[in-house]
Amino acid sequence: MQGRHGDALTGGAFPGGGVSMLSCEERLRQSWRRSEETYRIDPSTRASARVLTASEYRELRDRLSSFLRIAQLGVSRLHEQVRDSGYCVLLTNGQGATVDFRGTPSLDADFHRRGFLVGACWSEVEEGTCGVGTAIVDRAPILVHREEHFRSHNSGITCSAAPVFGPGDELVGVLNASAFSAPENRNSQSVVYRLVQQNALAIENALFVEACKSAWILSISAPGDCWNLGEVHFLAFDDSGRIVAASRRLRAGLFAGASLPSRRLEDVFDQSASMLMKRAHERPGAPIPLRCLANGLLFEAQLRAPVRESVSPPTVSVKRDFDALAARDPQVLECIERVKRVVDRKLTVLLLGETGSGKEAFAKATHAFSQRRDKPFVALNCAAIPETLIESELFGYKEGAFTGAKTKGAKGKVQQSSGGTLFLDEIGDMPLALQTRLLRVLAEGEVVALGASEPEKVDLNVICATHRDLAAMVRNGLFREDLYYRLNAAVFRLPPLRERSDRRDVIRQVLDEEMATAGRQLRLPEPALERLAAYPWPGNIRELRNALRFAVAVCDGEVLDEAHFPESVTLPPELAPCALPVARSAQAVEAALPASLADGDSERERMLQVLRRCHWNISAAAESIGVSRSTLYRRMQRQGIVAPNAADVMAVQRTTH
Questions:
Q1: Distance (Å, rounded) from C-alpha 522 to C-alpha 554?
Q2: What is residue 259's predicted lDDT score, i.e. its pLDDT?
Q3: 314 falls within a domain
Q4: What average pLDDT does the segment 398-410 reach?
Q5: Is the pLDDT of residue 75 over 90?
Q6: Is there a single domain that holds both residue 335 and residue 469?
Q7: What torsion do the CA atoms of 582, 587, 590, 592 make, to the nearest 10 degrees?
């Protein structure tokens, strides 16, 4: 390894880590030595990336669900900060297995080819010197730039990685930002390297607050560049003022070598616990001056009250079938009444709707209402599983079917759901090759697992869902026509949240569910409810749930207000970060249509012009006009416009080219 870099990006000392003041160059040199002498890796060879199986990945995420829930805000913020510069963001567990990946559609294929994908393992043992692996071994942040990677095929990548520690100093994960084709100058990565460290520290602090939520928590702003980065640090104490925990950097800075349980608040600062509580009560939210007795440093502090177990969580009755949907909207009620009539008629149900609009909840309610309610409800997201794994996930495999297969094989989702309900979410993202096999399973009622020679009979009831225009995909050769007609026996279109008249009921129910999960009882005032109901919710119920979960987590009182919700929800649309386009009002739609489209008979002709120009691709026509597909469908129905069949479409295409 060429030692051409100095200490500009070493990050200094790392409290609680495995290294002290070693230079970045020396750490990389030691890592190269381990790669060569301990792991005996040939730098000229490309490792076959170890990727967890779908079941292993699912089990890992289940184990880390609490960590992932808390970490997602830091991961999302880092991604927003670096994505426009061509970076992807990884979050791994403490052993280097990727549990979250954030990229950009235009670069994801390149990142995946280089091993940046969920389930991929980035340890030093497997990859040699690399950002994630070396950060794990050293328990400290690291920048590994281009040729500093041990394996030559990683030499074009730059990786900034920072470990994330739990409240007990255990290494729980690594946050990493990577790009390929990075500039030669190593110092060009300094900004990204610091952003990674800042967001890793923010995740650490959030983990600390969650773990110590039953104690009083003092958040302390350190002056200048004390303890690296000058971030907020946390200290927890009980009602008597005994210190019970301190965040990692604060512990290393103020309590080095001391046993925390033996210390009281007044032993460290110029105020006792009772004084702090009194000042916090007199001026809620105001910063409290706090002087350290050991060195005279003056801090600013905020005091957060504990979440007491005596707070009674709201009683939420267990709801089954369609009662769980809080549905009073006429469109949703109509879907419910219609699906009740077909649920036990052996018809494949196809649910259409925007992403996050509640298709899976509707599918679960349909299953709970059916005669199969006591049998399994098995879900598979066709877009969330790598293409190489979806076949084994869906159809199962026998022993020895492929390298890494379990010794006794595994049942696929089809076999698991036999007698119950199989829910295929995002069916529009299923690879074409698998569509053929699925069609055969649906037609014949039997499945052949990978590596098996004999088919197995299955009793299937299938519900599919997608946000895509399957008819347009069929016309474009992206979805099998025969499978499409097999799936659309009973089609139900769920409206987006912004079009539902029962938005307030949905908001209240989701809030009740999130409060019950968190064990809290909070009040949502009418002005805040009105603001939430007026927000267009481009991510629909999924976005609503995330916003309410965030608000419940950060609220330190008993009343929710706008300050507790993400900025994307509370700020005006033109100021909100990462705002997504949403369907416009009827007046705005009329204004966006071609000039004469609102004038009686001419509206039909002008609409036909747009549809013909787009070759009857409803999605393209809706986008060109500036409306949603559902709005365009309603307008077509009102004007008596019916799309031609596939042969007519081909004839139109021939005449227009």
A1: 12
A2: 53
A3: no
A4: 60
A5: yes
A6: yes
A7: -50
Do residues 220 and 173 share a domain?
A: no
Residues with Cβ within 8 Å of 454's Cβ and at least 6 positions away in sequence, in order, are 448
Angstrom distance (rounded) from CA 352 to CA 349: 10
Other Cβ atoms closer than 10 A to 500? 24
- Mean pLDDT on 1-24: 45
For strands 157-165 and 216-221, give the pairing: unpaired
According to the model, what pLDDT value does residue 636 have?
79
Question: 209, 224, 243: which is the final residue of a domain?
Answer: 209
What Rg value do the Cα atoms of the chain yield, rounded? 28
Q: Which of 209, 228, 252 is the last residue of a domain?
A: 209
pLDDT at residue 655, rounded to an integer: 42
Give the three-class secondary structure for 159.
strand
Together in a domain, 146 and 243: no
DSSP run (H or E) holding 158 = strand 157-165
Sort 433 into a burial class: Cβ within 10 Å, 0-12 / 13-18 / 19+: exposed
Q: Is the pLDDT confidence value at 19 over 60?
A: no
Q: Choose the most confident range, by mean pLDDT, from 59-73, 80-94, 228-242, 445-459.
A: 80-94
Six-digit token string for 188: 């060009």
Same structural domain, 170 and 219: no
Range of the domain at 368: 330-493
The arithmetic mean of pLDDT across residues 641-656, rounded, is: 48
Question: Within the chain, how many helices (H) and strands (E) appear?
Answer: 26, 17
Say if residue 478 is in the same domain as residue 543: no
Do strands 288-291 and 243-246 pair parallel, antiparallel, or not at all (unpaired)?
unpaired
For 428-510, list the strands marked E by DSSP: 446-447, 456-457, 462-466, 490-493
Give the pLDDT confidence score for residue 519 in this predicted structure.
Answer: 82
pLDDT score for 197: 94
Q: Is residue 125 part of a domain?
A: yes
Element containing residue 546 per DSSP (H, E)? helix 540-554
Question: Is the domain of 236 the same as that of 95?
Answer: no
Give the helix/strand (H/E) hosting 528. helix 526-534
Beta bridge partners of 163: 174
Q: Read off the DSSP letter of residue 313.
A: P
* pLDDT bucket at 13, cuts 50 / 70 / 90: very low
Residue 244 has pLDDT above 70, yes or no: yes
In a domain, 16, yes or no: no
Q: Do the Cβ atoms of 247 and 235 come closer than 8 Å?
A: yes
> What is the distance of C-alpha 344 from the center of its chain?
34
CATH number reported for the structural domain that contains residue 457 in this entry: 3.40.50.300
CB 303 within 8 A of CB 290: no
Residue in 332, 440, 320, 452 with CA at minimum distance from that of residue 399 = 452
Give the number of C-alpha atoms closer than 13 A to the C-alpha of residue 13, restricted to the C-beta side: 10
State phi, psi for 340 to the nearest 5 degrees. Answer: -60, -30
Q: What tens digit of pLDDT does each residue of 21-69 get? A: 467 889 999 999 999 999 998 888 876 667 888 888 888 988 898 899 8
Phi, psi for residue 549 in degrees, rounded to 5 = -60, -40
Round to whole Å and give the CA distance between 294 and 226. Answer: 15
What pLDDT shows up at residue 16?
40
Quote the pLDDT of residue 644.
Answer: 63
Query: Residue with structure tokens 């805040």?
Result: 528
Residue 315 lies in a domain: no
| Domain co-membership, 454 together with 422 | yes
Q: What is the DSSP string of 364-417?
A: HHHHHHSTTTTS-EEEEETTTS-HHHHHHHHH-B-TTSSTT--TT-B--HHHHT
Tell me the CATH number at 185: 3.30.450.40
- Domain at 638, CATH number: 1.10.10
The domain tally of the chain equals 5
Same structural domain for residues 597 and 470? no
- Domain of 520, CATH number, reads 1.10.8.60
pTM for the complete prediction?
0.48
